[in-house]
Structure formats: C-alpha cells, structure tokens
Inverse folding.
C-alpha cells in the first residue's frame, strides 16, 4: 500500500481538524461501502436480463415450446419455467 502525505491531499481546514485527533500517526481511511449488485461490473447481469427477455418473447410471441427453448439455450426445462413465470 502506498502512503501519501495528508498535507498534499487534504484541504488545510480538514488537515488541522484531523491533526487534533491523530497528529503524527498513520491513518487508514476505508473505502465507501457502496457495493454494486452481482454482475454489474462484468456485464453478466445485463447479459442474463437480455437473454431472459428473449426467452419470454419467443415463448409468448413466437409460441416456441419450453422444451425447444431449453434445447436452444442449453438450460433445463425447470430453469426456462422459472424465467417465464418470473
């Protein structure tokens, strides 16, 4: 982990306030705890959402059977059923 001089990063007012509590000490400032949902960073989430929409359209609009969809998408019939009834 690379260390930085607080006087190079923090504004003067904030630096003086921090010095009141931890002058001369090394501090670790944790990252913000905002976490992204599963698959948002890699794009997997949007891929599966798009795939599931295609499956639903093919079933309702094109009248393709669950068995045919399962074969086409290499999924089990139970998984296709979950996608359709979601």
């Amino acid at each position: 982990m690379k260390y930085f001089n607080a006087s190079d990063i923090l504004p003067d007012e904030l630096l003086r306030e921090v010095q009141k509590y931890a002058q001369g000490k090394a501090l670790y400032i944790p990252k913000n705890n905002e976490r992204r949902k599963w698959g948002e960073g890699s794009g997997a989430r949007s891929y599966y959402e798009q795939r599931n929409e295609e499956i639903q359209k093919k079933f309702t609009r094109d009248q393709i059977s669950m068995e045919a969809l399962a074969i086409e998408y290499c999924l089990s019939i139970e998984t296709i059923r979950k996608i359709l009834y979601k």
Q: What stands out?
A: The first helix runs from residue 6 to 9. DSSP finds five helices and no strands in the chain.
